[in-house]
Amino acid sequence: ASILVLNGPNLNMLGVREPEVYGRQTLQDIVEGLARSAETRGHRLEAFQSNAEHELIERIHRAYHEQVDFILVNPAAYTHTSIALRDAFQATRIPFIEVHLSNIHAREPFRHHSYLSDIAKGVICGLGASGYGLALEAAFQFLEQGR
Ligand code: DQA
């Protein structure tokens, strides 16, 4: 199957950005690990990062036309602001898991609400970079067993 990993604003700064909150792995490190696991499991994985809301939305639309089967998304700050990103997921109906490196519920109140969580298959937060790997395992299960 075909899996897309989407990362939102400032995640291109991982490794440098507040390592005490987000860890020391770069986005490239994380994506390379995911791509290896997907390949081993016989799936295709592509990754896209953008700091621009419209580019993330357009990537979701493109994923629909490419018949992408599943998305792992860390929407970063757009989690807490973007009705447009929510609408893109609802429009395309591509199943997705929401991932956050940090535990958004243990942070500032403005990070507690997500515009995506209630329409996600599931949400993983607070487990650092390994959260992406765990989400990918869950995606494999969904794609291979249909739930
Ligand atoms: C984040 C949490 C968001 O609140 C924040 O704006 C981010 C990263 C995380 O992965 O912990 O940019 O999504």
Automatic annotation (TrEMBL):
Keywords: Amino-acid biosynthesis, Aromatic amino acid biosynthesis, Lyase
Top EC category: lyase
Cited InterPro entries: DHquinase_II, DHquinase_II_CS, DHquinase_II_sf
Pathway participation: Metabolic intermediate biosynthesis; chorismate biosynthesis; chorismate from D-erythrose 4-phosphate and phosphoenolpyruvate: step 3/7
Active site residues of this protein: Y22 (proton acceptor), H100 (proton donor)
Enzyme Commission number: 4.2.1.10
Recorded superkingdom: Bacteria
Residues that bind substrate: N74, H80, D87, L101, S102, R111
Annotated positions for site Transition state stabilizer: R17
Catalysed conversion reaction: 3-dehydroquinate = 3-dehydroshikimate + H2O
Entry's Gene Ontology BP terms: amino acid biosynthetic process; aromatic amino acid family biosynthetic process; chorismate biosynthetic process; quinate catabolic process
UniProt GO molecular function: 3-dehydroquinate dehydratase activity
Classification via PANTHER family: CATABOLIC 3-DEHYDROQUINASE
Task performed by this protein: Catalyzes a trans-dehydration via an enolate intermediate.
Similarity comment: family membership: Belongs to the type-II 3-dehydroquinase family.
Assembly and oligomerization: Homododecamer.
Name of the protein this chain belongs to: 3-dehydroquinate dehydratase
Organism of provenance: Methylomagnum ishizawai
